[in-house]
Specification:
The complex is a heterodimer of chains A (about 375) and B (about 575).
Chain A: E1 4-13, E2 16-26, E3 31-35, H1 42-50, E4 57-62, E5 65-69, E6 74-75, E7 83-86, H2 98-108, H3 113-126, H4 142-154, E8 160-164, H5 172-189, E9 193-197, H6 200-206, E10 209-214, E11 217-222, H7 224-229, H8 234-239, E12 244-252, E13 259-264, E14 269-273, E15 283-288, E16 294-295, E17 303-315, E18 320-326, E19 329-335, E20 343-349, E21 354-357
Parallel strand pairs in A: 3-9, 3-10, 7-8, 8-9
Antiparallel strand pairs in A: 1-2, 1-4, 4-5, 5-6, 10-11, 12-13, 12-15, 13-14, 15-21, 16-20, 17-18, 17-20, 18-19
Helix pairs in contact in A: 2-4, 3-4
Chain B: H1 2-6, H2 21-46, H3 63-70, H4 74-105, H5 111-123, H6 126-137, H7 142-151, H8 161-186, H9 189-197, H10 202-231, H11 234-240, H12 248-258, H13 264-289, H14 314-340, H15 358-365, H16 367-399, H17 406-414, H18 421-434, H19 439-442, H20 446-470, H21 473-481, H22 486-497, H23 499-515, H24 531-541, H25 544-569
Classes of the chains: A alpha+beta (about 375), B mainly alpha (about 575).
C-alpha cells in the first residue's frame, strides 16, 4: 500500500476547466471519498490518478513513484501505474469467464500458473464469488458483476484502489447490502482507497474523510461528522443532507461563539449562538437541519419561536413533511402529527444552527 | 488470506522509452498512405507530362488538358456520361422510393418477400445483370424474339442511353430503397398518426408527411447513385460501345487498354478529370449526410410505423410490383442460369433439345477459364482475409488509440470512396509499370489483391466501425489500468470482442472482391485472370454460353455467401 499526493491538479477540456488546483493527501490505508454533483470534477480527478486522462497541470505521486508531473513533463501511461480501478459500468470483458477476467492481470504480470490459480481462488472467496468462476459476465446479476470487478482489481494488489461510483448501477435494496459489504471489506483490507460518488449516504457511511467538490474545486475536506455538522459553506451544507436556509441581517455584533441578534426580512428577531463572528449590519444566512427544528409547544427553553405560514403538507410514511414560509424563505419540517390551520409557531434552537456570511445562493 | 492481499508489490516498472505501439501504428498508417497514394500520384503526374511516365525525359505541361478538350468527340463523351448518370439516377430513385413506400410502408401482400427480391441486383455486379438483361431483352433475347410473334416489333432497344439507364437504374435502385427505408423506419411514427388524426387521408399523408420526411434520404442516395452512374463501366461497355455511345469510363478503357498504342497523357488526364468530379460528389455526400458512410450495413430491427392501407388496390398493386420483380430481376437472372445450361436458347426451339452441361465442362476443361474461377476464389479468400486484418487494425487505431495522426488516418482510409474503379485500375497499372522490382507482382494475382484492398478499405471500415463504437471504452480502459499496453489490450480485449464484425467485414469483402471487374481489367495479365475479366473476354469473343456459365457460378457463390451470413449473423450486407 502507499499514500497518494495530489498537488495543484488542473484539467481543462477545451475552454472548460473541469478540475482546478486540487490538492489532496491520502494517507497509507486511508479511505477517502470524492463527493459532489455530476460535473464537479470528481471523476476527472479519478481518471487523472489512473492515467486515463492526461492532466494539464499539477503533480500526482503514489508511494515513491511520480505518476504525473506537468512541470517535469512526466506522464506514466495507465499500464505503468499501479492503480486498481473499478468502473461504474464494471467493464467486465464479456468474452471471458469470471476466472479468465480475474486471471488477465495476473497473466500480464507473468504469475506462474499454480500461484495464479491460488490467487484467483483466494480473491474470489474474498468476494464470495468462488462458485461462479466458470460463468460469463452476462450470466451474473449486477451485484455479482460488481464483486467480480472488485476481485479482478484486488487480485494484483494495486498500490491504490480507485472506485468510480461502483454502487450506482444497483437498485436501492441491493445497494444497501453492497454498501454494508464494502464497508466490512474496507475494514478488513485497509487499502488506500479513493471512492467517487454523488451519494452522500455512501460517503458518510464508508469514508475516513470526505472531499466535497464543487465546480472543479475542493469545497471542503473533513471527517464525515465534521462535514455534516460543520459545513464550510452553504453548498456543502445543502449537498450533505437536507438543509433549510434562512436569510437574515445582523442587528448586534458578536465574536465567534458569542450571541448575536438577527432580524429576518419580515422584522421578526431571534438570538443565536454565532459559530462564526458576526458584524452588525451584515447579511448572513442561517442553516438548520430538518431534525433541529420542531413545532413550538409553549416551552421556549434556549431557542427562538418564530411565526410561519404553512404552504404544504405531505404524508411520506410515518412522518408528515410540512412546507413552511418564514419571511419569504421556504423551510421543510418533519413531524409526526400534521399541524392544523394556516399558521405555525416554529421553534429553532439557539445553538446548532450554522451562520454563513452573505446571502445563500443555493436553492433550498 | 487478507495478509496475502496486503503484500506490497514492487513499484511498477518505468514506462519504456519507445513503446511498441509506435511502430505498429506508424507502420499501419504508412501502409495505408502508400496504398492510397500509389494509384493516385502516377495518374496526376502523368496528366501533367508530355511523354509517357516511364520515358527517361519529359517536361511538365498542361498541354494534355488542352489536347483532351480538342479531342474530337470528347464533348459528346462528357455529355453521354452526364446523361447516362442522370437518367440512371432518375430510374434508380424513382424505383427505389416507390419500392421503399410499397414494401416498407403499406399493407401490400408479400411486401417483405418482394423487398428481399428487390435487393438482389445489389449483391450481383452490374456486369452479370447486364448479361441477364441481354439474354431476355437483347436483340436475340428470349422476350425480344417472343414479342414480335404476338405484338409486332419489340419496342425496346438496350443499345441506347435509355436502355442502358434502365439496366443501371434497376441495378442501383436497391441503394435508394435502403436509404429511404431506413429513413422511414427511423422516423417517429406519431408524425404520420398526427396527420391522420388531423383528418388527412392516406394519399395526403403520404404526399405531405411521409415523402417530405424521406427527402434527405432521397437526395443523399441520388448523389450516391449519380456518382456510381459516372463510374459505371460494364453497362456502357456491353451496350454502349457496339452502338457507338462512348462515356468517360469506356473512353478510358478503349484508349488505355484496348488501344495498341495507348495515349497515356490523354488517358491520365481524363482519369484525373473523373477523379476530381467524383471527389467533389463524395464531398457533397459527406456534407449532406454529416457522416462518412457510403457503404452502410443495416442491423437490428427498428419499430415499424403503422402501414398505409391500400384498400381495394392491394392486389392490383401487388400484381404490378410482382411484374416488375419478375421482369427486372427474376427473368434476367433465371434466363442467364438457364442459358448456362443450354447450348442455344430461343422460344422457337423446345428446351429439352438444347439442355446440356457442356458450357460448364468447357469452362473446367480450358485452363484459362478454370484458372479464372480458381484465381477469383484465391483473391477473394486470401485477399479478403488480409484486407480484413488491415481494416481491423485501422479501425482499432482510429477509434481506440491515442495515435497522433488517427484523424488523418481515418480520412485517408475512407478516401478510396472517391476513387472510381477504372481510375484505380489505370493508377495501379502506372504505379506497377513505374516502380522497378515490382515486375514479379505485376503479372500475378497479388496486384489484384493490393488494388482490391485499396478499393474496399472504406467498405470494410463501414462494416466494422459501428460495432466497434458500441463496445464500451471502459473495457479497454480496464485492461490498460491493470497493466496491459495498447497492443496487448487491442489483441486480447478489443479484437476478440469485434469478432462478429470482422467476420461480417470478411464476407462483405469476399463478395466485393469476387464480383469486382472494373479495376481488374486494367491490371490482369495472362495467368492472373479472374471471373470478371474472363467474362468480358468471353463476351468479346461472342461465347454467350460460356459467359452465362461463368456468371452463373458467380451468382451461385455470392448467393451462398449472402444466405450463410444472413442465416448466421442476421445481418444484412450491402456494399
Amino acid at each position: 500500500m502507499a499514500d497518494l499526493v495530489i498537488e495543484g491538479l488542473t484539467k481543462r477540456f477545451g475552454g472548460v476547466t473541469a478540475v482546478e488546483d486540487v490538492n489532496l493527501h491520502v494517507a497509507d490505508g486511508e479511505f477517502v471519498t470524492l463527493l459532489g454533483p455530476s460535473g464537479c470534477g470528481k471523476s476527472t480527478t479519478l481518471a487523472a490518478v489512473a492515467g486515463l486522462d492526461r492532466a494539464d497541470g499539477g503533480r500526482i505521486q503514489v508511494g515513491g513513484t511520480v505518476y504525473f508531473d506537468a512541470a517535469r513533463g512526466i506522464y506514466r501511461p495507465p499500464e505503468a501505474r499501479s492503480c486498481g480501478l473499478v468502473f461504474q459500468s464494471y467493464a467486465l470483458w464479456p468474452h471471458m469467464t469470471v476466472a479468465d477476467n480475474v486471471a488477465f492481470p495476473l497473466s500480464l504480470r507473468k504469475v506462474p500458473a499454480a500461484e495464479r490459480r491460488r490467487r484467483i481462488e483466494e480473491v474470489l472467496a474474498l468476494v464470495e464469488m468462488e462458485r461462479y468462476a466458470g460463468r460469463y459476465p452476462h450470466e451474473l446479476s449486477g451485484g455479482q458483476q460488481q464483486r467480480v470487478a472488485l476481485a479482478r482489481t484486488l487480485v494484483y494488489q494495486p498500490a491504490i484502489l480507485l472506485l468510480d461510483e461502483p454502487l450506482s448501477n444497483l437498485d436501492a435494496k441491493l445497494r444497501d447490502r453492497a454498501r454494508a459489504w464494502l464497508g466490512e471489506l474496507r475494514t478488513r483490507l485497509r487499502l488506500t482507497t479513493i471512492y467517487v460518488t454523488h451519494d452522500q449516504i455512501e460517503a458518510l457511511a464508508l469514508s475516513d474523510r470526505i472531499v466535497v467538490m464543487n465546480g472543479g474545486r475542493i469545497a471542503q475536506i473533513g471527517a464525515p461528522q465534521d462535514i455534516y455538522e460543520r459545513p464550510a459553506d452553504p453548498f456543502v451544507a445543502d449537498f450533505i443532507g437536507t438543509t433549510n436556509f434562512l436569510p437574515a441581517r445582523v442587528v448586534t455584533s458578536a465574536p465567534e461563539g458569542g450571541r448575536a441578534l438577527l432580524e429576518l426580512a419580515d422584522g421578526q428577531r431571534m438570538e443565536v449562538q454565532a459559530d462564526r463572528a458576526a458584524t452588525a449590519g451584515s447579511r448572513v444566512t442561517l442553516a438548520y437541519r430538518p431534525e433541529q427544528m420542531r413545532i413550538a409547544d409553549g416551552a421556549t427553553d434556549g431557542g427562538a419561536v418564530l411565526k410561519t405560514r404553512i404552504t404544504s403538507r405531505a404524508y411520506v410514511g410515518g412522518l408528515w413533511q410540512v412546507g413552511l414560509d418564514l419571511a419569504g424563505a421556504p423551510l421543510r419540517l418533519e413531524t409526526r402529527q400534521p399541524p392544523g390551520g394556516e399558521e405555525l409557531h416554529l421553534w429553532l434552537p439557539e445553538a446548532g444552527g450554522i451562520l454563513f456570511r452573505g446571502g445563500a445562493d443555493v436553492a433550498a | 488470506m487478507d495478509a496475502a492481499l496486503r503484500q506490497v508489490e514492487a513499484a511498477p516498472a518505468p514506462p519504456p522509452a519507445f513503446p511498441r505501439e509506435v511502430p505498429i501504428q506508424y507502420g499501419a498508417a504508412l501502409l495505408v498512405l502508400v496504398l492510397v497514394a500509389a494509384p493516385l500520384l502516377p495518374v496526376l503526374l502523368q496528366s501533367l507530362l508530355d511523354g509517357a511516365l516511364y520515358d527517361d525525359e519529359y517536361t511538365l505541361t498542361l498541354a494534355n488538358f488542352a489536347r483532351l478538350a480538342r479531342t474530337s468527340g470528347f464533348g459528346q463523351v462528357l455529355l453521354n456520361t452526364v446523361i447516362l448518370a442522370g437518367l440512371t439516377t432518375i430510374v434508380a430513385q424513382g424505383l427505389g422510393t416507390i419500392a421503399a413506400i410499397l414494401f416498407g410502408r403499406t399493407d401490400m401482400p408479400f411486401a417483405r418477400t418482394l423487398g428481399e427480391l428487390f435487393l438482389w441486383p445489389l449483391y450481383l455486379s452490374a456486369l452479370v445483370l447486364s448479361f441477364g438483361w441481354y439474354a431476355v431483352y437483347g436483340p436475340s433475347g428470349y422476350l425480344t424474339l417472343l414479342w414480335p410473334s404476338v405484338l409486332g416489333d419489340a419496342p425496346w432497344n438496350l443499345y441506347s442511353l435509355g436502355g442502358m439507364a434502365a439496366i443501371a437504374g434497376v441495378s442501383q435502385a436497391p441503394l435508394a430503397y435502403i436509404y429511404c427505408l431506413s429513413s422511414a423506419t427511423l422516423t417517429d411514427p406519431s408524425l404520420e398518426e398526427a396527420a391522420r388524426v388531423s383528418g388527412a387521408g392516406t394519399g395526403r399523408t403520404l404526399w405531405r408527411i411521409t415523402l417530405p420526411l424521406m427527402m434527405p434520404a432521397i437526395a443523399y442516395s441520388a448523389v450516391l447513385n449519380f456518382t456510381i452512374g459516372l463510374e459505371l463501366l460494364s453497362v456502357p461497355l456491353i451496350f454502349g460501345d457496339p452502338a457507338g455511345i462512348t462515356v468517360l469510363t469506356t473512353f478510358l478503357f478503349n484508349n488505355g487498354i484496348s488501344s495498341p498504342r495507348p495515349d497515356h497523357g490523354l488517358v491520365a488526364t481524363a482519369a484525373a478529370l473523373m477523379l476530381a468530379v467524383v471527389c467533389f460528389l463524395v464531398w457533397l455526400q459527406n456534407r449532406m449526410l454529416g457522416n462518412t458512410r457510403r457503404f452502410i450495413t443495416l442491423g437490428g430491427k427498428a419499430t415499424r410505423p403503422r402501414p398505409f392501407r391500400l384498400g381495394m388496390l392491394r392486389w392490383p398493386i401487388f400484381a404490378l410490383a410482382l411484374l416488375y420483380i419478375l421482369a427486372a430481376v427474376i427473368a434476367p437472372i433465371g434466363m442467364l442460369v438457364l442459358r448456362a445450361f443450354t447450348s442455344f436458347l430461343s422460344p422457337m426451339i423446345p428446351l429439352s433439345e438444347v439442355l446440356t452441361v457442356s458450357n460448364f465442362v468447357t469452362i473446367f476443361d480450358y485452363p484459362v477459364y478454370s484458372r479464372a474461377v480458381w484465381n477469383s476464389f484465391v483473391v477473394s479468400l486470401v485477399g479478403g482475409a488480409l484486407a480484413t486484418a488491415l481494416i481491423g487494425l485501422i479501425a482499432v487505431i482510429v477509434h481506440r488509440s491515442e495515435f497522433r495522426f488517427r484523424n488523418a488516418l481515418h480520412y485517408l482510409a475512407l478516401f478510396p470512396r472517391a476513387v472510381p474503379g477504372v481510375v484505380a485500375g489505370v493508377g495501379f497499372f502506372y504505379a506497377f509499370a513505374l516502380l522497378p522490382g515490382l515486375g514479379v507482382l505485376r503479372n500475378s494475382i497479388w496486384i489484384l489483391v493490393i488494388a482490391f484492398t485499396m478499393r474496399f478499405i472504406p467498405t470494410g471500415i463501414g462494416a466494422v466501425a459501428p460495432m466497434l463504437l458500441q463496445v464500451s471504452p471502459d473495457l479497454d480502459r480496464a485492461a490498460r489500468v491493470q497493466g496491459a499496453d495498447w497492443w496487448t489490450t487491442s489483441r486480447r480485449i478489443v479484437l476478440p470482442l469485434m469478432r462478429p464484425a470482422l467476420v461480417g467485414c470478411f464476407t462483405v469483402l469476399f463478395i466485393s472482391f469476387f464480383k469486382e471487374y472494373s479495376t481488374a481489367i486494367f491490371l490482369f495479365a495472362p495467368g492472373s485472370e479472374v471471373i470478371g475479366t474472363a467474362l468480358l473476354q468471353l463476351w468479346v469473343q461472342g461465347e454467350v454460353g460460356l459467359v452465362a456459365a461463368l456468371a452463373a457460378i458467380q451468382v451461385a457463390v455470392i448467393a451462398v455467401c449472402v444466405a450463410a451470413v444472413r442465416g448466421l449473423f442476421g445481418v444484412k450486407l450491402h456494399g
